[in-house]
Specification:
Helices cover 35% and strands 28% of the residues. The chain has 525 residues and is an alpha+beta fold.
Length: 525
């Protein structure tokens, strides 16, 4: 009888042990399978987010701080390539006079061509002040179709931030828009060029409308491109074949009076990469560099706010510490050849920090205001300064004490604008005043060569020379979503803690069974 009870107990323990082991194996299998499923689901979701934020865009071309013609995208378009211009800016929105406010807003100026990239028919066909917002902005803001918003948008311009002498005032603009529709993620409402998974706060406006608000004319700073199998080399070649000097913020001017052709920049200073390539590869080109100084001083006499031009050898043959002044400045300062002049100027540092510095230069020559010494084009085109009708109208990015300006200074400006009153050696000017934006304000070649200079300019420059970037956003986005983290392996790794616990439980049950057997055997004996 005791033997029968022992057999029954052993069978029950054996059954419980096997059941525990079976459950452990089943649990382990379920954990592994769940880890694979969850990992694949997360990876799939990340890829879907990438596709939704990019729409049908394969490539994105950006001009960094540079604005280009919106028509440039039309030049790239072909039978196998679709392109769409965008004006991208940052801003904020206010609802009902301050009832609600949203910062870190992405503002997109688009054309109806954006519908193709969004996979929609006419959702993004916007007129005047119509706007499409995405669901994220709608949820955060609580705004509905038909309501009006006040937008404050960072103003874009051709000038990089902190460009010397360019006024930084009015760096935001405000205007009202009316919500036409709310776009979901499947309608590319979460459009974003940054490789992040969180939904942005987007508002889409008409490109032409946004240009008008910013006082621009047909400009863009982003281009979406769709092209099956399109390679970077082919896209780069197409871009350089169709861009024009205006797309690079450059223009070429022929001076019929003085007989030269020059390249100037809408950004005041010509970038070093552009200048270096032209000077190295285009024959007989030479740079000039003009700068706005605070004052000239000789003894007790002062002449405020004037331009000084740095001219290359052959145009001004003087020593490093010498200066040529025109007759007007010589009379005003009562200076003669051999006198030393004090020249005060601002050095513009980071965040527009101004440091006034001084250099002493000896008068080597006094010239009459004629020929190259009366060249008004040596004054760079600085908004708020060169286009001012009177000295009192100057709006510059540096401090100007208008009380120092005399009637004779106004008369000079009326007759000669900012024609330089003094000239120094080019190397001296570049040593004193070159900055991160460039070391020349014009590149010149004697004679009339506008067409030839433009042809050579566009043929030797590469996108990276002028800040253009070509990004294979679709491939990069999908690669980041699929390879950044292998979520299958991650969840399997995490599940091993549970697997270890299940095996430990099975081991303990087996160990308990062995102890039970020993006790039963001891009892029988």
């Amino acid at each position: 009888m005791n033997g029968f009870r022992y057999a029954i107990k052993s069978l029950l323990h054996f059954w419980k042990l096997n059941l525990t082991m079976v459950l452990g194996v089943a649990l382990s299998t379920a954990i592994l399978l769940g880890a694979f499923v969850i990992g694949d689901t997360v990876s799939f979701s990340l890829k879907q987010i990438t596709l939704q934020r990019l729409g049908n865009a394969d490539w994105v071309i950006t001009g960094a701080e540079r604005l280009f013609r919106k028509e440039l995208s039309g030049g790239l378009a072909s039978e196998n390539i679709r392109a769409c211009p965008i004006l991208s800016a940052n801003g904020m929105a206010v609802l009902d006079g301050g009832k609600a406010r949203v910062n870190q807003l992405q503002v997109w100026g688009i054309t109806s061509g954006f519908n193709h990239f969004a996979g929609t028919e006419d959702l993004y066909a916007l007129h005047e002040n119509e706007a499409v917002i995405n669901e994220q902005l709608s949820l955060v803001f609580g705004v509905k179709v038909g309501e009006e918003l006040l937008l404050r948008v960072n103003k874009l311009s051709a000038f990089p931030a902190n460009t010397p002498f360019v006024s930084a005032e009015e760096n935001t603009i405000s205007f009202r828009v009316k919500v036409k529709a709310i776009a979901g993620a499947g309608e590319t409402g979460n459009f974003n060029l940054q490789n992040i998974q969180s939904a942005p706060k987007n508002i889409f406006l008409s490109l032409d409308f946004l240009n008008r608000q910013m006082q621009l004319a047909g400009k863009a700073n982003v281009m979406l491109v769709q092209g099956l199998g399109l390679e970077e080399e082919n896209l780069q070649q197409s871009l350089t074949q169709h861009w024009q000097p205006e797309d690079l913020s450059l223009k070429i001017i022929e001076n019929k009076v003085l007989g030269y052709t020059e390249l100037v920049s809408d950004r005041v200073f010509i970038e070093r990469a552009v200048a270096d390539k032209l000077l190295q590869k285009v024959d007989k080109t030479y740079p000039v560099f003009s700068y706005f100084v605070n004052r000239f001083q000789h003894g007790e006499r002062k002449t405020p706010y004037s331009f000084v031009a740095g001219l290359p050898k052959g145009k001004a043959t003087i020593a490093d510490d010498e200066i040529i002044i025109n007759s007007w400045l010589a009379d005003d300062l009562e200076a003669t050849i051999g006198d030393s002049l004090q020249v005060d100027y601002f050095e513009v540092g980071p965040l527009r920090q101004l440091n006034e510095k001084t250099v002493w230069l000896r008068v080597a020559e006094i010239v009459e205001m004629e020929g190259q010494w009366a060249d008004i084009n040596l004054m760079p085109d600085i908004p708020g300064l060169s286009d001012a009708g009177h000295c009192s109208d100057w709006e510059t990015g540096v401090s100007v004490d208008l009380s120092e300006i005399r009637q004779k200074d106004e008369a000079y400006w009326n007759d000669h604008k900012g024609t330089p009153k003094a000239f120094i050696k080019l190397e001296t000017a570049q040593k004193l005043w070159s900055n991160r934006f460039g070391a020349s304000t014009a590149i010149r070649v004697d004679g009339f060569h506008a067409e030839e200079l433009e042809k050579q300019l566009l043929s030797i420059l590469m996108p990276e020379d002028v800040g253009f970037q070509l990004k294979d956003v679709r491939s990069q986005g999908l690669q980041a979503a699929g390879q950044g983290v292998d979520f299958g392996e991650l969840f399997i790794g995490l599940s091993f803690f549970v697997l270890f616990a299940a095996l430990l439980l099975a081991f303990l049950m087996f160990h308990q069974y062995l102890n039970f057997r020993r006790m039963e055997i001891g009892t029988l004996h």
